[in-house]
Structures are given as structure tokens and as C-alpha cells.
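Q: I'm building a small set of examples for a reading group on sequence design. Run inverse folding on the following structure and report the sequence directly after it, with nothing in between.
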């Protein structure tokens, strides 16, 4: 065992030779976080958006109820209501029709944004009045024309331009025939003046004053400015807040082991100490400390001790290809996607105008997404360059409330994008000294390219047939761009580079790559296992087979069969709309033929099937279908459904939904039972808790936030403001909809913990795990895959997870319906299944 493996297999200590440098690195993380926080605060303040800074958001969140309360008192004041003339009475007529919290939020936002420059009282008041008028106008438009309102909102959903949002909504209201009597400038001013006063009374954050040189003038100009107490509070808040948001990066020594919920991760006391589980509930952390789930701590610590290093060869290629003018291997372009040109007849041709606006909306979406991806890629590359010099780097880990494991650093990390994973490799290398190691290593290469739906023998055959391309790629990846066609191009590139070295010197070569073993639709695997469902187990490869089953293809094939049986149907696709008018004269049979000609494959069924265990609905299934069609449209495969894509997608979504139900019957039964159980408990006012097979306690208690939520229709942007004030009442809807995904995620988290713990006891020291994907060296993959299968079987042999869940609730006095019936699956067959994790 070499030095790295020895270091990785023992707990970190305070006498590490790089400890001082690590502490300096963490000081740098704190400093970078402070710089980022201050830059963001300064930028937003200079742009007149103090309300969007953390301090501004804190003031607004704490002030809305107080301002709304003052406004309610003012509206209910009998003297104000009885006043026949004057500003207050006219303002009362408008403000009395609006939700006080919505008016309070608008006023606070405008006032806060007015504090960062020299804004006059009158200008702020008119801005408030205008925004409140917009709020009332758009709220009434939403009530009278809900479909048009939703359409307009969708057009501006991703637009970063507030002016465009207001323009689109205003244009839509005008064109729809919706009538609105404008308030006029004077009424807007009067409404705004009242709201400025409500902010002053409710929060006490502003002074209204004149300039000394203007005193005595006939037309005195008033100004709004933050008072001294406000300025002191913002300064103090920023000093504390900037220390709470360090830029988290890898460590250069193993992170601190977790022995309780509070003591692991980064070394420096300057770093914000985060608990093992991301939660704000102190009582839960206290319970976790008492339970001491040893296996969970051990698994997280083994993941943290895994030494990684930057793959400098891949980094060199990334920097070279990204410096070019054309996007390569999924890297975003350096230039924003172009916006469409306005047609010459846009003012006179409604069809031309509609087509242009749809194209412009999509172009805006692509531009926003491209900019975001460009920034993410730049951050990944920058961190890789920063840590390229180190022989070993590590990643602190944390859990969510279901027990799922996540790295604390973002960007460059082993759970990241294809680019991030391609830029990382294990610091320790291991020789491919057995046929098994070579076999798993080659299978990994085929998987990365996208050859992962065929047998292992066919994957190995593919590698042999493409050996020339692979070697040419390893020799000159910049001129031989075949690798960019892979599903995971940068991970595949890393493998090609290793293949070239192994081909030249197989006896001395050591592999540094993580060989990933992915579950076949993990959520459905777990539901099939817990209910011993033979059909679901077969569809998800839990039982042995000569080649892998692909449940997405199974569902797509069944959907095609259903479509084929419908081609002669004369039933209208859409009968009547709510006005009694026909909106589409197509028949179901015609649309079935159109779908068959267009092509229904695994890509269309994948997301509906994949999200099935996690609470997806028929509506979300329809959304997924439309998204795939739109993606194909952008790739050049135009769909034939024209303006009736929504209706056609709804029809196919229902067919796919029914097909899923026929393929995974037991999973649907388990999900329905869990949702009913959560509903019954919520009706009694009881949260849900359970302990997973790994010993990890899960606590699900979604509290009702509706009393603290302000929904603004549009204003300058579409806003839903949550004040994050929890009531003591459970949110019954979220309790029911959340239980299925949370329960199955807790199961796959438990399976990961048990597999890593078992594999660690077998001597494995390097792990790359992402929820339902398990990775280690090729030389250790045989050992790891055996540990994954055996612990999965042990987990469901030793634990009837649904029965244990039911028992937990019964102890609280919750009477639940009988559990779904179990099937005949012999769970021990999983040990023999080659493709359950492959």
C-alpha cells in the first residue's frame, strides 16, 4: 500500500504537514466569500437595488408585517373613511382593495431602492403608486383572463429585463380587450405618499427631509434617506453576514472526521461551522447526536478521506478547446446566442408578430442559460487551475434530511458535471493486474461514450472495434475530436488518455479513474425490492438477465403499441373549450398516426419514468413530453403538431402515464399508500419520522407557510415572496406529496452508506458516490460491486421498511390502512444480477 492509500485509510490528525497551508487556504475561502458578498452588495446598491441585497431582504422580511399592520389600521380608521375630500380619501379607495402585505412589500422595495441615491420623496411616491396600480390591474386581469395571464407570464419567465416583463404584460392586457381605467398621476402620487408614511411609521428606517439650501422656498423638495440607526444596522449586518458565506473549495488535507453532528469538515474556526445534516432544527440535531448512527459517520468519513487530484492532461485540453471560437463537447459558447431579427411586417401581421415573440422568448431563455453555463464552466476550470499543483485534494461532505450525501464545495467536485468529473481523478493509481480490472475499466469507457444499454460483452466488443479511434484521441485530442461525440465527453476523454498509456505499457500502467456503477432507475428498484415485485425487479435489472433491460424503452414500446391501437379512432382530440367552441378538429386516430411518424422512443419516456418514484404527476409528464419535443425542434427535428402541441402532448402523456402504471404496478401501490399514510398523519397534526436501515433518523415536517406568503402578480417582475415564517400547522399537501420521494431517497441513501461501509471493511479506500451511482478503482470494482449487491439484499432481508414505517406512526396513534401486498420476488437473486448496478 502506497503513502496515499495509507493516508486515506486513517483518520486525519492535527499534525499533518500541510495543516498550516490548509488553514491559510480556508482563510482565503473566507476572504473570497467576503469579497463576493461585498461586491454583490455594492453592485446592487449602485444599481438602485438595495432591496435585493441580503440586508435589504432582511429588512423587507422583518418589515412587511409591521407596515401591513399600520396600513390595515389606517384603512380601518373611521375618520379616514369618513373624509369626503382630500388626498387620504382618494388613496383609501385604491389601497382598501389591495392585500395589505402586497402593498407593504411594494412600498418597502421601492423605499429601500431609493436609499442608495439621491431620490426625491415625490419620485419614490409615484414609483410606489405606479407599482401598486400595476399590481391591481394585473390581478384583475388574471381573474378575468387566466389563460392569457399564464401565457404572458410564461413568455417572460426567464427574462432578466424588468421593462420587458412589464411591456409584455401590458401589451397582453391591451390586446385582450381587458378594460382598465387609469388612476392618473395624481392618484398614484397620493397612494405613494400614504405608503411612504406607512413605511416610516411601521419600520422607522427612513428620514424625510429637505436640503438646508432649499429651506424657505415656495416649492420645497423633499428627500428620502436612511436614518442613522438604519445605516448602523446595515453595516453591522454586512460585517456578520459576509463571514457566513465563505467560498467553499476542496481541502489539501483530509477533512475532519464526523463523530457527532457538529465536529467534522473544514479545520479552521473561521469557516462557518455547518452541521452534518443541513437543517435549522436544533431538536433534530440533538436527536441525531443521541442515536449515533455509526455506519453513517463511517461512510461519510470514508468519502471525505478519498484523495483526488486534478487531471492535468484533461485540463490542458479543456483550456485549449475553450479558447477557440466554436463550442466543443458541450462547453458553452463565448458569445451569447443571437436574438431573432424583427420581421418587417411585425406591426401589421399578427401571425408574424406571434411567431417572432415566441422565437424571441426562446432566444432569451437560451441566452440566460448560456451565460449561466459559461459562468459555471469558468468557475470549474478556475478551481482546477488553483488546485492543479497539489498531489492530493479532498472534499468535505454533508447530508440532507433524507440522509443523501453531498459535497460541500460546488463546481469542481466528484458529484458535479461531466466537465468537473473529467477534470478529477483518484490521487492513488492502481494497476490493472487482473482480467477483471481490465474488463471493468473497458466497460467504463464504453459507458462514458453512451454504449451502456447493451451486454457487457457487446460493450467490450465496441471498445475493441474502436481501439484505433481511442488511441488516436489519446495521441492528439485537439485534432482528433471523435471523443466530443460521447455522452460524457470529458469523462470519456480522460479514459481515452489512460487507454493510450495502458496500450503502450500495460504491465506498468496504473489507472486513476473512478469506475462508475449506476443503478437502473434506483427509485423503482427500491420500491420493487421492498414489495418483492417480480415485474418491477425484472424491468429494473434486479434479477439476472443475459442483457440489461431498459425500463425507459419498455415503457416507450408499450406506448407505441397503445398508439398503434388508436390509429382508427374517430374520437375528437379536443371536443369543446369552456366557451363551447371547437378548438381542434383533429381526431385521436390522426394524432396517434402523427406521433408514430414523429417517433416515440426512450428519450420521450425517460423523464416521466425516472421521476415516477419521486412524486411526478400526469401534468409533469405532459410538461416533460413538451420539453423533449422543443429540444428536438431546436436540434432541427420539427414536430407536426403546430399550434396544438399542448393538446397532442397531453394525449401522449396520458398514454405514457398508463404504460408506466402497467410496467411498475407495485411502485404505484407503494407510493399511493405512503401518500395516504402521510395525509392521515397530517390530518391529526402529526409530522412523520422514521429510522432508515442505516440508523439515520428522518424527520418530515413541512409547516404551513401560507399565512406568511405574499404573491405579487407582476409589478416590475413576477414575484412570490416567502417571508419564511413557519406556523405550527402542518402543510397537508406538502406532507402528502413529499413522502414518496423523501422515503425512497432515504432508502437509496441507506443503501449507499451500507455499501461504502462494507467496501471499506474490505480494504477499499477510494470512493466516488453520487446517490445511486457507485465508483472506485477498476482494480477494486469486483469487490465493490459485490458489496453493493450483498448490502442491498441484506437491507431488505433484515428490514421491512414499509412495515417499520407503519409501526413508527402507529406508536403515535395513527391508524393506517393495510400495507400493499407483497409479490414473490426472491430478493437474494440480486446478488447474481450483473446489470442491477452497471
Amino acid at each position: 500500500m502506497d503513502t496515499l492509500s495509507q493516508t486515506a485509510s486513517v483518520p486525519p490528525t492535527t499534525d499533518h504537514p500541510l495543516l498550516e497551508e490548509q488553514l491559510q487556504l480556508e482563510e482565503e475561502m473566507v476572504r473570497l466569500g467576503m469579497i463576493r458578498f461585498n461586491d454583490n452588495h455594492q453592485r446592487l446598491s449602485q444599481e438602485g437595488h438595495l432591496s435585493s441585497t441580503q440586508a435589504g431582504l432582511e429588512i423587507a422580511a422583518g418589515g412587511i408585517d409591521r407596515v401591513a399592520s399600520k396600513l390595515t389600521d389606517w384603512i380601518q380608521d373611521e375618520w379616514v373613511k369618513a373624509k369626503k375630500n382630500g388626498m387620504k380619501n382618494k388613496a383609501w379607495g385604491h389601497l382598501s382593495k389591495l392585500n395589505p402585505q402586497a402593498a407593504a412589500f411594494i412600498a418597502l422595495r421601492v423605499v429601500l431602492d431609493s436609499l442608495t441615491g439621491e431620490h426625491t420623496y415625490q419620485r419614490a411616491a409615484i414609483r410606489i403608486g405606479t407599482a401598486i396600480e400595476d399590481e391591481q390591474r394585473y390581478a384583475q386581469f388574471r381573474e378575468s383572463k387566466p389563460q392569457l395571464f399564464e401565457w404572458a407570464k410564461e413568455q417572460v419567465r426567464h427574462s432578466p429585463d424588468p421593462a420587458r416583463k412589464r411591456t409584455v404584460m401590458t401589451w397582453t392586457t391591451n390586446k385582450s380587450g381587458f378594460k382598465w381605467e387609469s388612476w392618473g398621476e395624481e392618484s398614484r402620487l397620493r397612494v405613494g405618499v400614504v405608503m411612504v408614511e406607512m413605511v416610516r411609521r411601521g419600520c422607522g428606517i427612513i428620514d424625510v427631509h429637505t436640503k438646508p439650501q432649499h429651506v424657505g422656498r415656495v416649492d420645497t423638495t423633499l428627500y428620502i434617506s436612511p436614518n442613522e440607526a438604519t445605516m448602523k444596522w446595515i453595516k453591522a449586518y454586512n460585517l456578520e453576514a459576509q463571514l457566513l458565506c465563505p467560498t467553499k473549495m476542496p481541502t489539501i488535507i483530509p477533512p475532519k472526521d464526523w463523530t457527532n453532528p457538529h465536529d467534522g469538515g473544514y479545520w479552521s474556526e473561521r469557516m462557518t461551522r455547518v452541521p452534518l445534516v443541513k437543517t435549522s432544527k436544533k431538536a433534530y440535531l440533538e436527536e441525531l447526536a443521541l442515536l449515533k448512527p455509526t455506519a453513517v459517520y463511517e461512510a461519510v468519513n470514508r468519502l471525505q478521506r478519498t484523495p483526488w487530484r486534478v487531471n492535468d492532461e484533461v485540463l490542458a485540453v479543456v483550456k485549449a478547446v475553450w479558447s477557440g471560437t466554436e463550442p466543443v463537447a458541450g462547453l458553452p459558447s463565448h458569445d451569447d446566442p443571437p436574438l431573432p431579427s424583427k420581421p418587417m411586417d411585425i406591426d401589421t401581421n399578427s401571425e408574424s408578430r406571434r411567431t417572432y415573440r415566441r422565437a424571441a422568448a426562446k432566444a432569451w431563455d437560451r441566452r440566460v442559460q448560456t451565460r449561466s453555463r459559461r459562468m459555471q464552466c469558468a468557475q470549474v476550470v478556475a478551481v482546477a487551475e488553483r488546485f492543479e499543483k497539489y498531489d492530493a485534494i479532498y472534499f468535505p461532505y454533508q447530508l440532507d434530511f433524507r440522509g443523501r450525501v453531498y459535497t460541500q464545495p460546488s463546481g469542481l467536485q466528484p458529484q458535479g458535471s461531466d466537465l468537473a468529473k473529467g477534470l478529477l481523478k483518484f490521487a492513488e493509481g492502481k494497476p490493472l493486474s487482473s482480467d477483471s480490472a481490465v474488463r471493468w475499466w473497458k466497460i467504463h469507457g464504453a459507458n462514458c461514450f453512451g454504449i451502456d444499454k447493451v451486454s457487457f460483452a457487446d460493450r467490450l466488443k465496441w471498445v475493441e472495434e474502436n481501439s484505433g479511434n481511442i488511441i488516436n484521441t489519446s495521441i492528439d485530442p485537439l485534432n482528433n475530436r471523435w471523443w466530443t461525440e460521447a455522452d460524457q465527453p470529458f469523462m470519456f476523454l480522460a479514459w481515452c488518455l489512460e487507454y493510450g498509456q495502458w496500450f503502450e505499457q500495460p504491465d506498468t500502467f496504473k489507472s486513476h479513474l473512478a469506475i462508475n456503477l449506476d443503478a437502473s432507475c434506483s427509485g423503482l428498484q427500491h420500491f420493487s425490492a421492498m414489495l418483492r415485485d417480480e415485474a418491477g425487479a425484472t424491468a429494473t435489472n434486479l434479477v439476472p438477465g443475459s442483457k440489461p433491460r431498459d425500463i425507459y424503452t419498455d415503457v416507450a414500446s408499450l406506448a407505441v403499441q397503445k398508439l398503434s391501437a388508436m390509429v382508427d379512432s374517430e374520437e375528437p382530440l379536443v371536443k369543446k373549450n369552456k366557451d363551447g367552441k371547437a378548438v381542434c378538429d383533429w381526431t385521436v386516430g390522426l394524432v396517434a398516426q402523427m406521433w408514430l411518424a414523429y417517433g416515440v422512443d426512450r428519450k420521450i419516456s425517460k423523464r416521466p419514468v425516472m421521476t415516477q418514484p419521486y412524486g411526478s404527476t400526469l401534468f409533469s409528464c405532459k410538461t416533460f413530453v413538451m420539453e423533449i419535443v422543443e429540444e428536438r425542434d431546436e436540434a432541427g427535428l420539427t414536430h407536426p403538431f403546430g399550434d396544438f402541441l399542448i393538446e397532442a402532448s397531453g394525449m401522449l402523456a396520458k398514454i405514457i402515464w398508463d404504460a408506466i402504471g402497467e410496467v411498475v404496478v407495485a411502485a404505484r401501490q407503494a407510493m399511493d399508500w405512503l401518500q395516504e399514510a402521510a395525509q392521515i398523519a397530517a390530518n391529526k397534526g402529526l409530522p412523520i419520522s422514521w429510522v432508515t436501515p442505516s440508523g439515520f433518523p428522518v424527520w418530515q415536517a413541512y409547516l404551513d407557510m401560507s399565512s406568511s406568503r405574499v404573491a405579487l402578480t407582476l409589478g416590475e417582475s413576477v414575484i412570490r415572496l416567502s417571508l419564511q415564517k413557519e406556523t405550527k400547522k402542518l402543510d397537508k399537501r406538502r406532507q402528502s406529496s413529499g413522502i414518496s420521494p423523501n422515503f425512497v431517497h432515504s432508502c437509496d441513501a441507506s443503501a449507499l452508506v451500507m455499501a461504502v461501509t462494507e467496501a471499506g471493511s474490505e480494504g477499499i479506500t477510494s470512493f466516488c458516490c453520487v446517490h445511486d451511482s457507485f465508483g472506485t478503482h477498476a482494480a477494486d470494482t469486483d469487490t465493490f460491486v459485490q458489496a453493493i449487491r450483498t448490502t442491498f439484499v441484506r437491507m431488505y432481508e433484515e428490514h421491512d421498511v414499509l412495515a417499520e414505517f407503519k409501526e413508527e406512526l402507529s406508536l403515535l396513534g395513527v391508524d393506517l390502512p393495510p400495507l400493499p401486498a407483497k409479490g414473490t420476488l426472491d430478493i437474494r437473486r440480486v446478488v447474481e444480477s450483473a446489470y442491477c448496478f452497471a
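The chain has a mean pLDDT of 85.
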